[in-house]
Amino acid sequence: MNKLDLIEALQNHTNISKNKAEAVVKLFINEMSNALANGDRVEIRDLCSFCVKHYKAYTGRNPKTGEHVKVKEKKLPFFKCGKELKERVDK
Questions:
Q1: Cβ-based neighbour number of residue 10 at 10 Å
Q2: pLDDT of residue 58
Q3: CATH of 41-91, one of 3.30.70.260, 3.90.870.10, 4.10.520.10, 3.40.190.10
Q4: pLDDT tens-digit readout, 60-83
């Protein structure tokens, strides 16, 4: 399922226009992204949670050349599956 499929599902289940469904999906995604960008945690009960993990700088290795490379510290979003979703997928 992609964003367009989600918009169509919302449109079909709620009988709203495609433009309104698209606006709702975009708002949802933007608000989640903004919360993560601010360092907040996003939790959707029974489905999943997102948080931002901080990774320290480290010395890595270029696999092609074997050369040592310094990797800067970074923040990345982290997804954790909810219990109900795990159980539903593992049927």
A1: 17
A2: 96
A3: 4.10.520.10
A4: 999 999 999 999 999 999 999 999
